[in-house]
Amino acid sequence: MSNTSKVITCKAAICWGVGEAVKVEEIQVEPPKATEVRVKMLCASICHTDISSIQGSPHANFPLALGHEGVGVVESVGELVTNVKEGDMVIPTYIGECKECVNCVSEKTNLCMTYPIRLTGLMPDNTSRMSIQGQRMHHVLSCATWSEYMVIDANYILKVDPSIDLAHASFISCGFSTGYGAAWKEAKVESGSSVAVIGLGAVGLGAISGAKMLGATRIIGIDKNERKREKGEAFGMTHFINPDDSDKSVSELIKELSGGMGVDYSFECTGVAPLLTESIEATKVGTGKTIAIGTGTDIVPFGLSCIMYGRTLKGSVFGGIKPISDLYIIANKTQKKELPLEELFTHEVPLADINKAFELLKQPSCVKVVIKMSC
Asked: Member of which family (predicted)?
């Protein structure tokens, strides 16, 4: 019997309903269909989207197999798959790139129309390859990386060099690349410019790294966690603001560090609604550009006056990164150790202790938690 005809029983982190505790349970993973691959996961990590998914966002389809950041080895492939083979190292992506649809051809966006974001928690054919106790399971977006094995459509993966650091490969599958791309592809930060980054998690640190790569000379990081000062500096931050140290607003504090005029570019990476207004107000009148990266469920309470004075506000998904044309460049930099991604790796837990990871995220010293697979 070939690998592509076997059902695999393995362990995965499962949530049964909104707000319920995450449990590690045995599940069944079916073989890949024609355009799919089954991946043996080696390493995964936690992103804010994983936490919000437990609360029912971006969808509330349960039971839910968690995780969307990770790296693994192709265990088996469907008959029509040509871009990877068994044994290849791959990272998942949650958007594809056909290079032929109106969006891909336009070069104006990374949101492919042929291989869009999967907001149903199912495969492109609206079925699932994962089940538990005979019940169909969903995943967060295109896959479920907190599972020892998972199936993903081949159009949502990127082959990477097998010598790449596993934890670092996991980081670039979403969080870090989202921030890096926001500076690189969305804002197109110019050399000699000024930048403010609100929220110095993996996404914010990625935005700092991207701004430094593009030659920004004043990069201001904003975070209430004083320990993020050192992390920000490692990625290229030149100035740090802890809002708790002042009674002034975040935008006022940023303007004080940018000659009173504000910065050229700002990046809101927290998803905290009022901070989007602060991020816009912190940019220059007439030319300032704000990239909204963080996602939250609150209504954003900003008035049109924020952008009426010539400022620009732009939403961003995956930092504008295209998974074929752009992500491989970040993967190459990662493989060559050109990015200080070791600064993100602060904690590690085995899959069996996944709930410990949520507690670690509350610690001031935590940036990224790595999940090691046991299979």
From this structure: Belongs to the zinc-containing alcohol dehydrogenase family. Class-IV subfamily.
